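pasting for ref
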Amino acid sequence: MLAALSLLLLLEATAPAAPAPESRDVLLRRQVAQLALAQVRKQDAAWHPDQRDCAGLIRFVFRTAYKNIAPERLASPLWQDAHGKPSDFADAESLLQHSLVPLGRDEATRERVRTGDVLAFRREQDSGPIFHLMLVVRPEDRAHAPARVVYHPGEKGAAVRTGLLHNLADEAPREWRPVPANSAFLGFYRFKEWMP
């Protein structure tokens, strides 16, 4: 009996441990990626047509990801408006100023960005500055797929688009290249709540 008990204890001690549950951060990032890529195939009817622009895409996929993974967080708004007050709506400039944190503008930062991070651009027009945001979708297994960007171009009725992040540096029109030499490129950003 004692030998059987000792064997049972030994087997329990050497049995592989159950995998640790995935963190909320991992689940949210995965959900953001799935939701963003789903908009490329077909824009979700729940995404209000009047909010379909680059900032609207980010607001929609983040809010939906939180609704699916951590609905308790939505008891208060995710974003801050132009005055820094909690709000369900924030334009691209307000997102950059109050809800996202700059990570950098260089190639090393581009290699470190994760799903849910944002590329930001600002172009000067006669009517004032125009901001543009693109969402990063980077596979968890980097060896099998490159990082992508997903974005809405801003025109009413336009489709959500996607492309490879590394191609933007060489192939995109100059004003949309995420490189330090491009003065319109503001840098890479991350949602404040996702900062360590």
